[in-house]
UniProtKB/TrEMBL annotation:
Protein's UniProt name: Heptaprenylglyceryl phosphate synthase
Molecular function terms from GO: transferase activity
UniProt-listed NCBIfam families: GGGP-family (TIGR01768), PRK04169.1-3 (NF003199)
InterPro entries attached to this UniProt entry: GGGP/HepGP_synthase_I (IPR039074), GGGP/HepGP_synthase_sf (IPR038597), GGGP_HepGP_synthase (IPR008205)
Organism annotation: Kroppenstedtia sanguinis
UniProt KW keywords: Lipid biosynthesis, Lipid metabolism, Magnesium, Metal-binding, Phospholipid biosynthesis, Phospholipid metabolism, Transferase
Family listed: Belongs to the GGGP/HepGP synthase family. Group I subfamily.
Subunit structure, as described in the record: Homodimer.
UniProt pathway annotation: Membrane lipid metabolism; glycerophospholipid metabolism
Binding site for Mg(2+): 18, 44
Record function comment: Prenyltransferase that catalyzes in vivo the transfer of the heptaprenyl moiety of heptaprenyl pyrophosphate (HepPP; 35 carbon atoms) to the C3 hydroxyl of sn-glycerol-1-phosphate (G1P), producing heptaprenylglyceryl phosphate (HepGP). This reaction is an ether-bond-formation step in the biosynthesis of archaea-type G1P-based membrane lipids found in Bacillales.
Cofactor: Mg(2+)
Catalytic activity: sn-glycerol 1-phosphate + all-trans-heptaprenyl diphosphate = 3-heptaprenyl-sn-glycero-1-phosphate + diphosphate
């Protein structure tokens, strides 16, 4: 089990920052010192080595875990605290399930710090989102399908976490709970559309880890408050560690 996998077990609230979007130094300082458990650097489009390195270097000036989510192999920045490898389980293209990962490992496998790497299984559910279009995700599904994806992630692929991703849209609690039903030890991430305390509380009860991204750029003060909204809410049926 990787060191990153162990650290992920403690994450309750995470900010996700996009290298292709601008954020002032004052705003970044507030984000990194708000009490979040980690900052994930990643995005869907416009991701380059240069903008990823710049953002990661800025974040590492603060006492917070900085993890890079790898969506473009040429944008990998050495020196992050860990690396998340997304696997889009409901993609209709095998590129986003295994091909891109295979090509990256073929090229860089001898230098990958495996102790700092973890796979993150995605189920993308917002049909109109950039990530759904890019990955050709099959977003129409029943709750039983999501439970099955969760079991696939944990029991077949042995992934440490499953991410239910609504990407810019607030999701359905019943679908998040359907994913919960399929998990025992793997961690359940939720991300998408949280802008109010009530929404954060609902998803905090359903999931182990809540990811806040777009809100940082839309309403910084609400984003900072989301740390408290999430951490003061107890989970219902969250994954239990060994």
């Amino acid at each position: 089990m990787s060191m990153l996998t162990e650290r992920m077990k403690t994450w309750r609230h995470v900010f996700k920052l996009d290298p292709n979007r601008s954020l002032s130094e004052s705003a970044l300082e507030k984000v990194c010192t708000a009490g979040t458990d980690a900052v994930i650097v990643g995005g869907t489009d416009g991701i380059t080595y240069e903008n990823s390195r710049e953002l990661i270097q800025r974040i590492t000036e603060y006492p917070v875990q900085c993890v890079q989510e790898i969506s473009v192999e040429s944008a990998v920045v050495p020196g992050a605290d860990g690396y998340l490898i997304p696997v889009v389980l409901n993609s209709s293209s095998h590129r986003w399930v295994v091909e891109a990962q295979h090509q990256a490992i073929r090229k860089y496998g001898d230098w990958i710090p495996w102790q700092d790497v973890a796979a993150l299984g995605y189920v993308v559910l917002h049909r109109e989102s950039k990530v759904a279009r890019l990955t050709e995700s099959r977003t129409e599904m029943e709750s039983a399908d999501l439970t099955a994806y969760a079991r696939l992630a944990e029991f077949l692929f042995r992934m440490p976490a499953l991410y239910v991703e609504y990407s810019g849209m607030y999701g359905e609690e019943r679908m998040v709970r359907a994913a919960r039903q399929g998990l025992e030890k793997s961690r359940l991430f939720y991300g998408g559309g949280i802008s109010r305390e009530e929404q954060a509380q609902v998803m905090s009860r359903a999931a182990d880890t809540v990811v806040v991204g777009n809100l940082v750029y839309q309403d910084l003060e609400a984003a900072l408050q989301s740390v408290r909204w999430v951490k003061e809410t107890e989970t219902n049926g969250a994954s239990q560690d060994d």
